[in-house]
Design brief:
Layout: H1 8-24, H2 30-37, H3 42-54, E1 58-60, E2 66-68, E3 81-86, E4 104-109, E5 119-123, E6 139-144, E7 153-158, E8 161-169, E9 174-177, E10 188-190, E11 195-204
Helix pairs in contact: 1-3, 2-3
């Protein structure tokens, strides 16, 4: 199968849409795409988006929102990648990796997502771990495992809600400790009423719009 080649404008638009979907869960507006691509008319930006839809790279949900249908690896890289599911911010009441939670698949270098382990991506919300370099909107790459060592930063499920904290173990209790510049975040003291979903191995920062 021949490799799909996008024009510079199409590649730029796809990168913008992918980044916005990954870090906010929403596609950018046509006006935002227009400004980013340097167009003076939203019609020009819409033509690029429609072209990506025609190529099968994007599709529209029934709500009208854009969604990545087929990712296209950059032509200027030969790094080996693996598709990792982004599970958003893990809605309550559903298993973290339930199909309903998977927003998109994102190619990640195998230097980060090292086989044979399994991984998922989670969108960080809030500032409870900013002193560990995890900001709201960043993506964290999580290696799936049911246990972790004291001092590791983990994703835990408490009452069906995912939280990112530093694990601290003692003989009496488990403490999920925030690492934040915001003093309102307090440690969570637990016994066995939580589940470790995995250990964070890398953070993918949210890219600021230029």
């Amino acid at each position: 199968m021949s490799k799909l080649v996008l024009s510079p404008k199409e590649s730029h638009a796809l990168k913008l849409i992918r980044n916005s979907l990954a870090h906010t869960g929403r596609a950018p507006s046509i006006r935002a795409i227009m400004l980013e691509l340097g167009y003076k008319s939203p019609h020009s930006a819409m033509l690029v988006v429609n072209r990506l839809i025609d190529l099968g790279v994007l599709k529209r949900r029934s709500s009208g929102q854009l969604q990545i249908a087929k990712d296209v690896e950059s032509h200027d890289t030969h790094a080996r990648t693996v598709e990792i599911p982004l599970v958003g911010s893990a809605p309550c009441g559903q298993p973290l990796l339930a199909e309903e939670n998977i927003e998109m698949m994102i190619p990640v270098s195998t230097k980060l997502a090292k086989p044979p382990h399994r991984y998922f991506l989670l969108r960080a919300i809030g500032d409870s771990m900013d002193q560990k370099g995890i900001q709201s909107g960043d993506l964290v790459l999580v290696r799936q495992q049911p246990d972790a060592e004291s001092g590791q930063v983990i994703v835990a499920l408490i009452d069906d809600e995912a939280t990112i904290k530093e694990l601290r173990k003692s003989t009496e209790a488990i403490v999920l400790k925030p690492r934040s510049s915001n003093p309102r975040h307090k440690p969570i003291v637990l016994h066995d009423d939580f589940k470790i979903q995995g250990v964070i191995v890398s953070t993918i920062p949210k890219l600021e719009d230029n």
